[in-house]
Amino acid sequence: MNDTKHIHIQAYNYPLPDERIAKYPLAQRDQSKLLIYRNGEVVEDTFTALPTFLPKGSLMVFNNTKVIQARMHFRKETGALIEIFCLEPAHPSDYAQNFQQTEGCSWLCLVGNLKKWKEGTLTRQVEVKGSALTLSATRKENRETSHLIEFKWDNQGITFADILEAVGELPIPPYLNRATEEKDKETYQTVYSKIKGSVAAPTAGLHFTPQVLQALDAQGVEREELTLHVGAGTFKPVKSESIGGHEMHTEYISVRKQTIQRLMAHQGEATAVGTTSVRTLESLYYMGVTLSNNPEATEKELHVHQWQPYEYAESVKRGETTALTTMQALEHILNYMERNRLEVLHSSTQIIIAPGYNYHIVRRLVTNFHQPQSTLLLLVSAFVNGDWRRIYDYALSHDFRFLSYGDSSLLIRE
Fold first, then answer.
1. 92 near 98, Cβ under 8 Å?
2. Same domain, yes or no: 79 and 132
3. Is the domain of 212 the same as that of 260?
4. Are 157 and 212 members of one domain?
5. How far apart are the two ends of the chain, measured CA to CA in Å?
6. Which of 25, 119, 200, 228 is deepest in the core (most CB within 10 A)?
7. Same domain, 256 and 308
8. Does one domain contain both 377 and 234?
9. Residue 41 exposure: Cα atoms within 13 Å on the Cβ side
10. Torsion sign, CA atoms 370, 43, 385, 330
11. Is the domain of 228 the same as that of 325?
């Protein structure tokens, strides 16, 4: 574990000129370029060819989270503009319940222009579904870098989801250096997005079209969905010199019993669409480890801590415990869900995947090209056994587009 904690983030730097960052998506999502990496070899194709590179009968796992219009603006009587960026629900803490509230709710938020909002309640008059209402926001206590904000409104026929849909703004990534545009509401969502809760898109999925999904079906590739709500922490830069000083953000996941069963039917192996799917799938293994030691753990106690994988590996190495197979870990989860009559497992993960990590479930990864010195680049490096520079050098020298609206890659572990 110490080797991983001592990784210097500067070793994961590379030159990324601004002109290589895709500010907008292609007109046709599935016409993006596709880099394929296998056994140290790199070739390229178009994303529409993706199904031909996947084994017949294999399982592909997608994150079906939907980006919410999480930014709202209020203007003080003085004229100062205050931005409130909803990060995660506080009361009720369940996303679905919070969105259905009809009088008030509270969220952990980032606040822009905070120095101009020292106290008091902000209000604005808004029209939602043809009805006028007054929406108010009151600052409560600070929670580290975020603030607890209580929202109230005076129309019981309107839900908080309705309010966000009507007055919220889609939070596109800060590195695009542009304002959100109307068309981002469509292009910054995957075509299979369903479950509201993310403040950033699982961008590897942005390349898929109904036609590509149909081609996967025709190829005999099975499809399964899970949910990880992407938090603003996904953009959190690593500011410490070594990654041991970086605190990973917590993200909330939902996995159906059917998904566990299908993973087991595929011997615990899958193709992950995006790093969010990777973090969810790999976290399942460690939830299984927790259950092997504590079968009566609550869903909250199944939370995967940042360094848990490395601590567990050290414990196995010292002979203090025997490593679970992937199938054993999944079986512990399935048994737990059946004992507790759960159709969906709800928990959270803070996992950091970096060189030194041992992958358990993910065998193939569809992902975009990530920022220098990011935890996502560490995840990719761990997946390709440190060979990330070969991939990124090729992409830079062959006109690939980078980051959220950029091109794609298929990384394969043999």
1. yes
2. yes
3. yes
4. no
5. 25
6. 228
7. yes
8. yes
9. 4
10. positive
11. yes
> Are 230 and 320 within one domain?
yes
Residue with tokens 């928990």: 347
Q: What is the pLDDT of residue 2?
A: 67
Residue 317 confidence (pLDDT): 94
**Is the per-residue pLDDT at 386 higher than 90?**
yes
Whether 160 and 137 share a structural domain: yes
**Structure-token pair, residue 187:** 């292009």
Q: Which residues of 110-133 are buried (b: 16+ CB within 10 A; e: fewer)?
A: bbeeeeebeeeebbeebebeeeeb
**Cα Rg for the chain, rounded, in angstroms?**
22
pTM for this model (two decimals): 0.93
By the 8 A CB rule, do 126 and 172 touch?
Answer: no
* pLDDT, tens digit, 9 for 90 and up, residues 93-139: 999 999 999 999 999 999 999 999 988 899 999 999 998 999 999 99
pLDDT of 236 strictly over 90: no
In a domain, residue 178? The reply is no
In a domain? residue 289: yes
131-143 β-sheet, strand order: 71-75, 81-91, 104-112, 146-153, 131-143, 121-128
In a domain, 363, yes or no: yes
Q: What is the mean pLDDT of residues 221-239?
A: 87
The number of domains in the chain is: 2
Does 91 have pLDDT greater than 80? yes
